[in-house]
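step=predict obj=C2H2-type domain-containing protein n=148
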Amino acid sequence: MHTGEKPFKCNLCDAEFTVNSCLKRHLKIHSGVKPFECEQCDAKFTVKYHLDRHKLIHTGAKPFECELCDAKFSTKSHIKTHIKMHTGEKPFKCVICKAGFTRNATLQSHLNIHSGEKPYQCELCDAAFIAGSSLKRHSKVHTSITTV
């Protein structure tokens, strides 16, 4: 019977699990050991499943299709996030300004606005940014070729 109870708790973060095997797999994240490496890029993973899921990026396979629009995704987590766009669900709330977000990672990036922290540093100049997307956009300044 499914009670929703999650008795297996990580002592290093707030993660909770219904079965001990999932907790054991999760603990590998904290070890920093990433034995599963993608042959096509530098990505490394703690769990083989995560590597297998990552490889879909290189194949272009997008087996997860949104029933509400034509969007397709390579991972289940990406389609879950996408569906929140249709429903308007924003479960991750900023405790400072109450802004809502569909992803925790987006909330974490947003919190840098309030703290003033700029963790995304350009390796080619002194520019620093609150969001990784801003650094990516900025990096085009260094790669654009101007002709006279």
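step=describe
The CA atoms of residues 6 and 125 lie 47 Å apart.
step=end
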